[in-house]
């Protein structure tokens, strides 16, 4: 089984980090994983995306031509990647920032006010992990406990105290994704 | 009977290919004597430049490598960092050091690499046939400045010692010249100090030697010594330009 | 950070290459910042001193390669890395290293060109890497890894080949492989061949005759030609180091030829084609010099059509043409703007080719 995901948004939204967490989770479950980031000249702002592939077999292409799932955290990402969704693919949209409807009539669409939900949980910056939770709840690509455990792989000492709230975001997201 | 004069052990018994009256042979003899006197021949690694002095690996009786044009300070940096207890020096001409290699010499000096640099300034590209060098004097005729160096288009001669003396990393800089026996002795003293500094771990030491190139200057050997004294010294002042050990 | 061998970890291509070098005994690294390979000097800046080696952030790519030249002649395993514009500057030093017969590893994480181009992955430096690049009549082994585990293996083997043949060796990778992450396991480093004693290094002429290292050979009229014939013999010997991979190629009617990052992506395209009932197969040169011409020739002559895929305007395709000797059946698909072709895109090309 091979599955892929494109996460997109703007620099600073934690797009790359959420992809990394998913890869660590996949790795914990013994899967093959690849993570391919966008990289630009600027350190902040601008389009940001990453491609994640999870597979039981060796992964041929880390580059995603047709994404099975796209998580779009804002219009910048959404406008750029909407077209690369595979037929009948899944769109997870942050309706706090994306106000328009998708042009893809074939898409399965899952809309949540991710930014607002993150604010309610106490930190706007955990929107990325909330979105990842929704993805895992919806697709079961990996287990919830794997992404939670993967937080420890990416949290440096400086940010250890943020692990708890990120975990909360994942759980909340999972619950939302699982219920719809 | 006591020997009062011998070939230095650091020189091979090979005839060199330098032109009559050239300064390279003299400076290399001085270098060999200094290395003998410091007893470091067996741990010395020399770096030859591109230019007339490239063949020094055939003349010196210790390990020598060639380096691409202008890059000896980069090569020396790596050798010294890999083998910190060896004695590493570069021997470079004015085209090599003051033109194509300005970046490398500047940064090696600025990093304060514990190496010795001997810089031969004869105001001309020797090996390629006497073209204008960065150190060619204003008005001086060369094959690429047939009416004499025009400072309005070719700029002024580069004073490398003064330039490098502003850098914090530098331990010692002196400019010497080869125009008479007293100054030849001063040259040896300066080069010895530059090596002693390295032995003592003091850091980047640099000696510029004003050296004759009679053939490319179109002068007789004796006249070229006069040329150094009467012309070059006006522009390139002799003496210690920087010596950190004199600072308190 | 990946310091432990024999444990699967997630790591970027750039960091994997740096750590592999450390494990292989590289104890000197000099580099200069350029995207998309900056993680290599960044990693080396702390890891190399920790391993007891020397890290220098050089003033330029020219200085960096010449520092590798200097470190190498002391017998130290040395590496530098850069990306396309920086490699152009390093060619001077690479040519001198070839002439002086100095080992060393040069990593090129290619980006789009010409000129400053862009910072996205590319394969536009194939000619530069395999046809000389620098001046003079030299060759060097060039590895083109297509996965991060393979890059690790290549870096380790590159240091061995460099020492065995006293030659610079290049890792010709690209920004995609450098930036992406993949799970890898750092295996313990074990040379696959016996390594020669370095009895040529300069470390001070103690209890031996002085040695010299040089590439200028004009002391006698025949000296350089003799030297070049000697190098030619060495290049001939290096041919046994050729590596390649084939995938479903034995009965392939459409032979796809690709290397490096496109090698793995084309494997995915071959799978798509097979699922659609098209007999596609892959020929992937693993070393792009030496080049597996005999294999390309055999497979290419057997196949009905040959499709060469590169992230450039068509470079390796010339080597394929020389090997297959039937231009009519060979077609080329390239993305030359620092863009990357997807497996779906190549699958479409395979379908077109099969028509």
Would you kindly provide a brief summary of this structure?
The complex is a heterotrimer of chains A (about 180), B (about 250) and C (about 350). With about 250 residues, chain B is α/β, with parallel strands linked by helices.
Q: Identify the CATH architecture of chain A.
A: 3-Layer(aba) Sandwich
Oligomer: heterotrimer
- CATH architecture descriptor text of chain B: 3-Layer(aba) Sandwich
Report the portion of residues of chain A in β strands.
25-35%
Gyration radius of chain A, to the nearest Å?
Answer: 15 Å
Q: Tell me roughly what share of residues is in helical segments of chain A.
A: 25-40%
- Overall 3D shape of chain A: globular
Query: Strand order of the main beta sheet of chain A, please?
Result: 2-3-1-4-5-6
Give the domain tally of chain B.
1
Using the coordinates shown, work out and report the CATH topology of chain A. Answer: Pyruvate-ferredoxin Oxidoreductase, domain 3
Q: What's the CATH topology name of chain B?
A: Rossmann fold
Rg measurement of chain B, Å? 17 Å
Determine the mean pLDDT of chain B: 96
Which range best describes the helical content of chain B: under 10%, 10-25%, 25-40%, 40-55%, 55-70% or over 70%? 25-40%
Give the tally of β-strands of chain A. 6
Number of helices of chain B: 10
Number of helices of chain A: 6
Strand content of chain B: 15-25%
CATH superfamily of chain B: Thiamin diphosphate (ThDP)-binding fold, Pyr/PP domains
Describe the structure in your own words.
- The complex is a heterotrimer of chains A (180), B (248) and C (355).
- In chain A, helix 2 links the parallel strand 4 and strand 5 (85-94).
- Chain A is built from six helices and six strands.
- In chain A, 39% of the residues lie in helices and 25% in strands.
- Chain A has a single domain (2-179), classed as Pyruvate-ferredoxin Oxidoreductase, domain 3 (3-Layer(aba) Sandwich), CATH 3.40.920.
- In chain A, strands 2-3-1-4-5-6 form a six-stranded mixed sheet, with helices on both faces.
- Chain A starts with a strand and ends with a helix.
- Chain A is of the alpha/beta class and 180 residues long.
- Chain B is α/β, with parallel strands linked by helices.
- Chain B has one domain: Rossmann fold, CATH 3.40.50.970.
- Chain B has helices spanning 24-38, 56-59, 72-82, 94-100, 102-110, 151-154, 160-164, 181-199, 214-217, 221-235; strands spanning 44-48, 63-66, 87-93, 116-121, 124-125, 131-132, 170-177, 204-210, 239-243.
- In chain B, strand 7 (170-177), helix 8 (181-199) and strand 8 form a beta-alpha-beta unit.
- In chain B, helix 1 crosses helix 8 (181-199), helix 3 (72-82) packs parallel to helix 5 (102-110) and helix 4 (94-100) crosses helix 5 (102-110).
- The model of chain B has no long low-confidence stretch (mean pLDDT 96).
- Chain C has 355 residues and is of the alpha/beta class.
- Chain C folds into two domains: 8-198 and 229-240, Rossmann fold (3-Layer(aba) Sandwich); 245-354, Rossmann fold, CATH 3.40.50.920.
- Chain C has helices at 13-23, 39-50, 61-72, 84-100, 126-130, 148-165, 175-179, 223-238, 260-275, 293-302, 316-324, 343-354; strands spanning 8-12, 28-31, 54-57, 78-82, 104-110, 142-143, 168-174, 181-185, 212-213, 244-247, 254-257, 280-285, 287-289, 305-310, 330-334.
- In chain C, helix 9 (260-275) packs across helix 12 (343-354).
- At the B-C interface, strand 1, strand 2, helix 3 and helix 5 of B face helix 3, helix 4 and strand 9 of C.
- Strand 2 (32-37) of chain A pairs antiparallel with strand 8 of chain C, so a sheet runs across the interface.
């Amino acid at each position: 089984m091979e599955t892929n995901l494109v996460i997109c948004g703007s620099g600073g939204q934690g797009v790359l980090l959420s992809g990394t967490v998913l890869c660590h989770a996949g790795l914990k479950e013994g899967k093959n994983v690849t993570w391919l980031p966008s990289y630009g000249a600027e350190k902040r702002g601008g389009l940001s995306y990453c491609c994640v592939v999870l597979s039981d077999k060796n992964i041929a292409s880390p580059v995603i031509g047709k994404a099975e799932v796209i998580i779009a955290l804002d219009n910048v990402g959404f406008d750029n990647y909407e077209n690369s969704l595979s037929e009948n693919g899944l769109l997870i949209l942050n309706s706090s920032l994306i106000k328009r409807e998708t042009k893809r009539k074939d898409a399965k669409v899952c809309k949540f006010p991710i930014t607002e939900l993150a604010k309610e949980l106490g930190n706007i910056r955990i929107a990325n992990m909330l979105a990842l939770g929704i993805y895992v709840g919806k697709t079961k690509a990996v287990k919830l406990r794997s992404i939670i455990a993967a937080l420890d792989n990416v949290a440096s000492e400086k940010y250890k105290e943020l692990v708890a709230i990120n975990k909360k975001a994942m759980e909340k997201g999972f619950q939302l994704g699982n219920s719809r | 009977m006591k020997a009062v004069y011998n070939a230095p052990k650091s020189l091979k018994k090979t005839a060199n290919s330098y032109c009559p009256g050239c300064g390279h042979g003299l400076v290399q003899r001085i270098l060999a004597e200094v290395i003998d006197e410091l007893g470091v021949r067996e741990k010395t690694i020399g770096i030859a430049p591109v230019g007339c002095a490239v063949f020094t690996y055939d003349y010196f009786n210790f390990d020598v490598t060639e380096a691409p044009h202008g890059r000896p300070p980069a090569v020396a940096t790596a050798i010294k960092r890999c083998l910190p207890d060896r004695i590493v020096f570069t021997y470079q001409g004015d085209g090599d050091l003051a033109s194509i290699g300005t970046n490398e010499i500047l940064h090696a000096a600025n990093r304060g690499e514990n190496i010795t640099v001997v810089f031969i300034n004869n105001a001309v590209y020797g090996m390629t046939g006497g073209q204008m060098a960065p150190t060619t004097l204003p008005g001086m005729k060369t094959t690429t400045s047939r009416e004499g160096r025009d400072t309005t288009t070719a700029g002024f001669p580069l004073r490398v010692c003064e330039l490098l003396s502003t850098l914090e990393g530098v331990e010692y800089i002196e400019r010497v010249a080869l125009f008479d026996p007293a100054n030849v002795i001063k040259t040896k003293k300066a080069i010895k100090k530059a090596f002693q500094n390295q032995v003592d771990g003091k850091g980047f030491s640099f000696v510029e030697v004003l050296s004759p190139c009679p053939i490319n200057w179109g002068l007789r050997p004796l006249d070229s010594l006069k040329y150094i004294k009467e012309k070059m010294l006006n522009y390139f002042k002799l003496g210690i330009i920087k010596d950190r050990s004199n600072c308190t | 950070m990946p310091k432990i061998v024999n444990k699967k970890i997630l790591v970027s291509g750039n960091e994997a290459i740096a750590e592999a070098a450390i494990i292989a005994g590289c104890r000197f690294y000099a580099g200069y910042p350029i995207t998309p390979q900056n993680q290599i000097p960044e990693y080396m800046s702390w890891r190399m001193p920790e391993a007891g080696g020397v890290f220098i952030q050089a003033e330029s790519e020219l200085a960096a390669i010449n520092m590798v030249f200097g470190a190498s002649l002391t017998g130290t395993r040395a590496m530098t890395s850069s990306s396309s514009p920086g490699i152009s500057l390093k060619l001077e030093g690479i040519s001198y290293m070839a002439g002086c017969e100095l080992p060393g590893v040069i990593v090129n994480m290619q980006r789009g060109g010409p000129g400053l181009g862009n910072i996205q992955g590319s394969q536009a430096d194939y000619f530069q890497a395999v046809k000389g690049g620098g001046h003079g009549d030299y060759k060097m082994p060039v590895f083109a890894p297509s996965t991060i585990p393979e890059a690790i293996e290549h870096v380790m083997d590159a240091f061995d080949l460099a020492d065995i043949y006293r030659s610079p060796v290049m890792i010709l990778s690209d920004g995609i492989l450098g930036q992406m992450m993949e799970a890898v396991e750092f295996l313990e480093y074990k040379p696959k061949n016996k390594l020669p004693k370095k009895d040529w290094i300069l470390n001070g002429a103690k209890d031996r005759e002085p040695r010299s290292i040089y590439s200028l050979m004009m002391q006698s009229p025949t000296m350089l030609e003799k030297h070049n014939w000697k190098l030619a013999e060495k290049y001939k010997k290096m041919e046994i180091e050729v590596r390649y991979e084939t995938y479903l190629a034995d009965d392939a009617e459409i032979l796809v030829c690709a290397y490096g990052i496109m090698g793995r992506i084309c494997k995915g395209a071959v799978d798509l084609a097979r699922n659609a009932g098209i007999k596609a197969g892959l020929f992937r040169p693993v070393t792009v010099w030496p080049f597996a011409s005999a294999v390309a020739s055999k497979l290419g002559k057997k196949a009905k059509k040959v499709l060469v895929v590169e992230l450039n305007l068509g470079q390796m395709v010339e080597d394929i043409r020389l090997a297959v000797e039937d231009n009519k059946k060979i077609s080329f698909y390239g993305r030359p703007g620092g863009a990357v072709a997807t497996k779906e895109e190549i699958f479409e090309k395979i379908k077109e080719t099969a028509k």
